[in-house]
Protein: Branched-chain-amino-acid aminotransferase
Amino acid sequence: MSPSAVSSTPSPGVQASELTASAVAQKIGASANLQPLDASKLIFTKTQTPMAVPEPGDPIIATSSQCTDHMITAVWDSTVGWHAPKLQPYGNLSLPPTASVLHYATECFEGMKMYRGYDGKLRLFRPDANCKRMLVSATRISLPAFDPSELEKLIKAMIAIDGPKWLPKSRPGTSLYLRPTMIGSAGALGVSTPKEATLFVISTFMPNLSKPKGLRLLASQNGIRAWPGGFGYAKVGANYGPSLMANGEAISRGYDQVLWLLNGMVTEAGASNFFVVWRTREGVIQLVTAPLEDKIILDGVTRRSILQLARERLTIEVVERAYTMDEIVDAIKEKRMIEAFAAGTAYFVCPVSAINYRDQDWQIPMNQGDSGDYAALIKSWLMNIMYGRDEHEWGVVVEENEEL
Amino acid sequence: MSPSAVSSTPSPGVQASELTASAVAQKIGASANLQPLDASKLIFTKTQTPMAVPEPGDPIIATSSQCTDHMITAVWDSTVGWHAPKLQPYGNLSLPPTASVLHYATECFEGMKMYRGYDGKLRLFRPDANCKRMLVSATRISLPAFDPSELEKLIKAMIAIDGPKWLPKSRPGTSLYLRPTMIGSAGALGVSTPKEATLFVISTFMPNLSKPKGLRLLASQNGIRAWPGGFGYAKVGANYGPSLMANGEAISRGYDQVLWLLNGMVTEAGASNFFVVWRTREGVIQLVTAPLEDKIILDGVTRRSILQLARERLTIEVVERAYTMDEIVDAIKEKRMIEAFAAGTAYFVCPVSAINYRDQDWQIPMNQGDSGDYAALIKSWLMNIMYGRDEHEWGVVVEENEEL
Structure:
């Protein structure tokens, strides 16, 4: 067993997968005598060794390790609160071997992208949703609170600097991945709430993860990703490392990802939300995905956006409910399955072509060859918002600082 | 959602909470064309800035952050395997912000101690058990395999150097905590098996965690530590950070730790194994603890040692089975509860005086005032082995290098 300090301050009790404004205010107010995260205090140090932007096709892109010139960092400690954030040259972090994050997984993150629009503008997609979820995740993993709108300002400050160079106007329709992260950086081996934390934001190139032949999923048989009373709804590291073993098994058997089941119910595909479109036995076409109430699955921003657009623009039924793999098999057997897809920031909207369940492959229709109709339609709606073809409140234009 | 590289190598499939020699050989053989971890290649660099050893009572001891002069490090990568390990001055680690461990909790560790015996000798307690469990944990979290006996040699090499100074012969009956750790240090944001890992071993001072009035536990009501098909049996970071929120709530309500329940069954106390001694309704005295089969609880070295000594030396029944909090309450109501204790490396054998269950405090007898009889007896047996009063194969003497 490990030691556990008994003198630590209790962690805040907010667990909701979506925070209301009042809950945020309450959380931040709870540490009223500590300095809040304040983007207006940003200290800017420009890199003296700018890096080269890789050309499309450069093999470094596939490594997901090429970052841009700068990063945001902000340190919190339990006596001062948030110190002034910094925009500084990208570089390694120096951590004591006793740092909480290296032992106890006191870490959470967000996945988002910046998009270079066809109109030349740089956009984020619903950054407020990511920043609020980051607070939910930080709270769940006993890391400090912050005002999500301050995090959003810091993200914008960084991409205002790195966007013009790294996502140039000459490459409309492309994106860069953004990774806000918070870690427990206090050096102390007691199992307790970290007394120091470091927030950082980096931006990387990502390989194209789309699957022209559709994702092939291996339904989990023994392993589970998350459970009631756990932390499946939070974007914390503890949901990812433990999933790699099952993911490795899926890949070794010729599949792309695990379709995570819990007591036979379908939850997530890999680290993405999962949707099916089927016809009920009564003939009603439904878009179905797992619900948020039991806190098993991530409250995906793409998931939420798909549900809202489908409700606004489609005439099919949109249903959030617990459903089972057996229901999917029945729909396939009875030729009622229309399509299925995974959805999230990195994989975006990714059609699913097959699911292996109890050692049997079940084919899912993709009636456009590389996609089903609904996935293709929804994907186009989202891309039009992200890349500025449709004006929409979810596509947030970021002012760029091209002087620097 | 997060990206997930589909080209990663599958992680090995060993999941057993105890590895047989053949399983270890198979795991290491699986990467036959990679260099194995080899303690005989150790490269030694002595510190040029030795630190002062804190006196007993120095406040730094309570911070669990004062390490000794040296640390072991060893880097593995997916093309070479294990590079030559180093014994080097204690210092910070430099990690890219994209390092797997900071995002995906690809981390595992061990907790052990070195003991300065009353006979002047330095001992480890069953280090082979910790090193084997470290391999189990590394496998579960998709970190590379190694021969546990090589890790044991590295640990011994470090304490041979730091033991004489940091745990001097003038302080018999004291101990220092040892923390072997492995992290995914590869800088790449794809959710995949890390292509680089770093093993390190550090040693720290720990505050005395004993509770003269006994541990007061708060039984979990909604939160759950581990689940069948999960990873509760492995010493991975993902079991610790998510528990801090409930632990903080317990402390804020005046308790020391959470007693983790799963469907009403008793699993662990904080990050320790949990034991009760009761009289059955038939009048039989039993020592009871949760079983390992369902892989919910950690296969504690202290747990395993207590069970074995109790079976060898006591006449009471020793039972590993699933049991419920309701059974504990019944035993207390019917005055059949004799005592309870938590057990692990850091808390050692720690008597429990109270459990809050469904908002009601249930008192547990401690008939020696600060302990029950069985906990006191078992603790004395273990201490006699650790501190060399009893010659026993579990107390492994480490040769010290007092020249350096």
The first strand of chain B starts at residue 43 and ends at 44.
